[in-house]
């Protein structure tokens, strides 16, 4: 464990955070059933969220962005204990969320609500809008006291009508069913339902990504207005960076279960620090004429599997700025090629058959031809000096089909700080978990073994 | 100036459903030139995907292309049908819709090809990716050898086939030569280790890789026109950037024309030279990227551009279009500008059917900026504005 649980990486001056998360982890376990234990299968963990820490201040909107599978929705759901956390601490206004019992949890959920992504599956098709909106009040037996001339039901219904109008629908629609509404209108109903309990904090899990752009803008404006009106605090989970820039005060960028960068929205978008954030921002196509024909240098490959994430920095396998050892002189693109080759060898993903085929040698004895073909495939430019000699020795080992020795030879010279030490967020208002920026003293952290856990 | 490869004129596609006739595509016209990327942008339900399907004759029941012309430049076909079917030929162009069914089908692949939004559901999960691409290669080879017969050997089902298959497992499914070509295609679209990956099943591919494989499949016939229907919508932005680069490279190297259909104005801006904006089954505005993005005339185009938050310049408040996308059911559509009920600048004249105007001047060539809105011809006149609630009142009157 390397994340520093002590310092809040994003402490804003003088304000008490509404929600504070420390080193939160959520692992899913596969092959974890009784049968699997009988068969003595090893459980496999999927590290959906792997040690994240952040604070949310009162009245602010914190954005949580990342690509699919980075753990942002899991984070949102774990915060509200819709999923049980594996490890870590969550404090909501001083109360320990993970330690709450049933009654406390119910009280907590009155104060913290969620709006889901899909407005089609998150409303019960057999309930009227009125029933849907009143249900949270029934569960929490609210309001506690009613004026003597009205029944509880009447008060609740009045309130539902009131909230329908506040989210831009008409009170007359209260007896309709969800299928009579469009996607944007349903999302408004989902928002009204979350508001019925007058919560302080709402997790918005991709609230506009299922909507068309013209309707999306309506809902974003609505969320803005409601925040002003009720003094709400939002955790806004999204993958659309333009939307995040528009609505959030601060933004956390996630990659493969980790927060890689966190900062005030304008700082983060104008001056992205982490290479992943930079690549992400560069990839977004902008709706402007200047965008025409712009060619972005995309990140190579896909996001690695969270079953077996890379050691050290999670992003190192795709990072265009991976850091070579101090004493090795090598240009960045060649170093990237060396690292890609190492990843392939170490993950047993290297198939030499095609190289031998190209070397046109069935007996696999013509090593120079093999090495020539191999170089042509993996290295765009030639290497030189000691780098060249090391790669040469590694290729000799590969030609003899000794993958382990090749990996060892390359690791000895080219091992990067990025694969040995997991970077953490520094303290300060705009930290980035990357070795390009100042990291805490190495003595404080245990160097991570290549395959942890 | 490049020549047109495809000229679409007044295309109409209808769906005949239980709720009534749905006018999904309502008189769409546009041209696609040699080696260009033509963009069609619109929200869900605007008819952009049905336009794509109509182009390559893939509209399924209860839908049908009811009228319109799709002129495709092909000298060979023009020669072949000049005497037989003179109405279908105009110079080098043939009207695809008037050709016999078999010929139309044989165009799919070598002339038109399509990639879809969701790669996961577009592949058959029980065959390897390589086999499926090789199958496309074989279909194309057969089509070339005998243009009238495009059914591949692999399409047959039946007891006999099942017996043969179980006795001789799928080794004979596709020929080795086709498989080799499939591997080449996979390499061309940037899949590492194409030899190994060709033997894997779709679930072993990531979304981005599978989209590449689908592009490889579409390239099997070396098409003149590639129709890409939301090719990156299901992908993350960094993967989207990879796929967009790939499409641009392929388009340049192969000299293909691409019809790019998307809801994402950013993708349009990055990829396209000219663009059409669709709303309620019509192209409401078309022109070059500059025309449409810098000088939009139609209030819908303006509204669409005003609704998206800009990454570089976050406006304090978005300017959304009020209301929702209209129903396209014929009986509910009325005989007026379809956007009038959401339009902030609706006037009395908008209650008439609005023709397509040339934004610059009347009678110009198709190259010009064209708009289906009265504002293309004159200024907004507040004295003629429809009062608030005009359409609600009409609705109430209709209900009574």
TrEMBL record, chain A:
Chain ranges of the ABC transporter domain: 19-281
Family statement: Belongs to the ABC transporter superfamily.
Keyword Glycoprotein: no
Record-given protein name: Peptide/nickel transport system ATP-binding protein
Residue ranges of the region described as Disordered: 292-314
BP-aspect Gene Ontology terms: peptide transport; transmembrane transport
Any single Pfam family the record assigns to this protein: oligo_HPY
Keywords: ATP-binding, Nucleotide-binding, Transport
Gene3D superfamilies, per the entry: P-loop containing nucleotide triphosphate hydrolases
Entry's Gene Ontology molecular function annotations: ATP binding; ATP hydrolysis activity
Top-level taxon of the source organism: Archaea
UniProtKB/TrEMBL annotation, chain B:
SMART domains: AAA
Gene3D superfamilies: P-loop containing nucleotide triphosphate hydrolases (3.40.50.300)
Membrane topology designation: Peripheral membrane protein
Recorded GO MF terms: ABC-type nickel transporter activity; ATP binding; ATP hydrolysis activity
Pfam families from the UniProt entry: ABC_tran, oligo_HPY
GO terms for biological process, alphabetical: peptide transport
Subcellular localization(s) per the UniProt record: Cell membrane
Entry keyword set: ATP-binding, Cell membrane, Ion transport, Membrane, Nucleotide-binding, Translocase, Transport
Catalytic activity: Ni(2+)(out) + ATP + H2O = Ni(2+)(in) + ADP + phosphate + H(+)
Residue ranges annotated for the ABC transporter domain, each copy included: 6-305
Record-annotated membrane-spanning stretches: none
Highest taxon, organism lineage: Archaea
E.C. no: 7.2.2.11
Recorded GO CC terms: plasma membrane
Broad class of enzyme this protein falls into: translocase
Subunit structure: The complex is composed of two ATP-binding proteins (NikD and NikE), two transmembrane proteins (NikB and NikC) and a solute-binding protein (NikA).
Name by which UniProt lists this protein: Nickel import system ATP-binding protein NikD
């Amino acid at each position: 464990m390397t994340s520093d649980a002590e310092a809040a990486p994003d402490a804003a001056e003088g304000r008490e955070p509404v929600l504070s998360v420390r080193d939160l982890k959520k692992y899913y376990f596969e092959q974890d059933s009784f049968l699997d234990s009988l068969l003595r299968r090893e459980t496999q963990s999927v590290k959906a969220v792997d040690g994240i820490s952040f604070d949310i201040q009162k009245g602010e909107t914190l954005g949580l962005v990342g690509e699919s599978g980075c753990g942002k929705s899991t984070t949102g759901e774990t915060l509200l204990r819709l999923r049980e956390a594996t490890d870590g601490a969550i404090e909501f206004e001083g109360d320990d969320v993970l330690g709450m019992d049933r009654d406390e949890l119910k009280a907590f959920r009155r104060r913290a609500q969620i709006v889901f992504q899909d407005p089609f599956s998150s409303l019960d098709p057999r309930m009227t809008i009125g029933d849907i909106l009143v249900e949270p009040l029934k569960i929490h037996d609210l309001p506690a006291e009613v004026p003597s001339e009205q029944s509880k039901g009447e008060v609740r219904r009045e309130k539902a009508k009131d909230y329908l109008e506040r989210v831009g629908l008409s009170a007359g629609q209260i007896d309709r069913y969800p299928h009579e509404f469009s996607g944007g209108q349903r999302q408004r109903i989902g928002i009204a339902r979350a508001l019925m309990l007058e919560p302080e904090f709402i997790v918005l899990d991709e609230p506009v990504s299922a909507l068309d752009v013209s309707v999306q803008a309506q809902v974003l404006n609505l969320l803005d207005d409601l925040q002003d009106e009720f003094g709400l605090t939002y955790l806004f989970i999204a993958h659309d960076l333009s939307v995040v820039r528009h609505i959030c005060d601060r933004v956390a960028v996630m990659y493969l279960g980790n927060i890689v960068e966190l900062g005030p929205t304008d700082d983060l978008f104008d001056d992205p620090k982490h290479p992943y954030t930079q690549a992400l921002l560069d990839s977004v196509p902008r709706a402007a004429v200047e965008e025409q024909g712009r060619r972005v240098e995309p990140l190579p490959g896909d996001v690695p599997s969270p079953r077996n994430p890379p050691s050290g920095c999670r992003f190192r396998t795709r990072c265009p700025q991976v850091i070579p050892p101090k004493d090795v002189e090598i240009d960045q693109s060649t170093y990237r090629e060396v690292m890609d080759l190492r990843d392939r060898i170490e993950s047993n993903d290297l198939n030499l058959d095609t190289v031998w085929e190209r070397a046109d040698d069935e007996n696999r004895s013509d090593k120079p031809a093999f090495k020539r073909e191999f170089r042509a495939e993996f290295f765009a430019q030639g290497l030189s000096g000691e780098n060249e000699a090391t790669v040469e020795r590694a290729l000799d080992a590969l030609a003899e089909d000794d993958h382990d020795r090749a990996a060892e030879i390359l690791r000895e010279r080219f091992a990067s700080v990025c694969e040995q030490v997991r970077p953490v967020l520094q303290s300060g208002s705009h930290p980035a978990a990357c070795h390009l920026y100042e990291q805490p003293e190495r003595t404080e952290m245990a160097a991570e073994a290549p395959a942890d856990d | 100036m490049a020549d047109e490869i495809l000229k679409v004129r007044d295309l109409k596609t209808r769906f005949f459903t239980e709720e009534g006739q749905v006018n999904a595509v309502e008189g769409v016209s546009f041209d696609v030139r040699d080696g260009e990327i033509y963009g069609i942008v619109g929200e869900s339900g605007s008819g952009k995907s049905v336009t794509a399907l109509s182009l390559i004759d893939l509209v399924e029941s209860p839908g049908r292309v009811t009228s319109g012309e799709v002129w495709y430049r092909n000298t060979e076909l023009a020669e072949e049908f000049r005497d037989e079917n003179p109405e279908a030929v105009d110079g080098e162009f043939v009207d695809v819709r008037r050709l016999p069914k078999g010929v139309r089908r044989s165009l799919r692949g070598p002339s038109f090809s399509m990639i879809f939004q969701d790669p996961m559901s577009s592949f058959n999960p029980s065959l390897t990716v390589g086999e499926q691409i090789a199958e496309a290669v074989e279909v194309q080879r057969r089509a070339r050898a005998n243009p009238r017969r495009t059914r591949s050997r692999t399409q047959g089902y039946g007891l006999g086939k099942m017996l043969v298959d179980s006795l001789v497992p799928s080794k004979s499914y596709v020929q080795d030569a086709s498989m080799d070509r499939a591997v080449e295609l996979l390499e061309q679209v940037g899949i590492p280790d194409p030899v190994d990956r060709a033997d894997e099943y779709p679930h072993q591919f990531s979304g981005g890789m599978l989209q590449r494989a689908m592009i490889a499949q579409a390239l099997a016939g070396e098409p003149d026109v590639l129709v890409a229907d939301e090719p990156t919508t299901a992908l993350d932005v960094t993967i989207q950037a990879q796929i967009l680069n790939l499409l641009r490279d392929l388009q340049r190297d192969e000299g293909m024309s691409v019809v790019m259909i998307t809801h994402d104005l950013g993708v349009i801006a990055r990829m396209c030279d000219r663009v059409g904006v669709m709303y309620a089954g019509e192209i409401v505005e078309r022109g070059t990227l500059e025309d449409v993005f810098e000088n939009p005339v139609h209030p819908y185009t303006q509204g669409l551009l005003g609704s998206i938050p800009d990454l570089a310049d976050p406006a304090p408040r978005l300017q959304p279009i009020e209301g929702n996308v209209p129903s396209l059911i014929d009986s509910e559509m009325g005989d007026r500008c379809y956007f009038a009920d959401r339009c902030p600048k609706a006037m009395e004249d908008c209650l008439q059917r609005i023709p397509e105007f040339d934004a610059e001047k009347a009678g110009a060539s198709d190259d010009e900026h064209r708009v289906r809105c009265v504002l293309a011809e004159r200024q907004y006149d507040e004295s003629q504005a429809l009062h608030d609630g005009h359409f609600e009142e009409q609705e109430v009157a209709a209900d009574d």
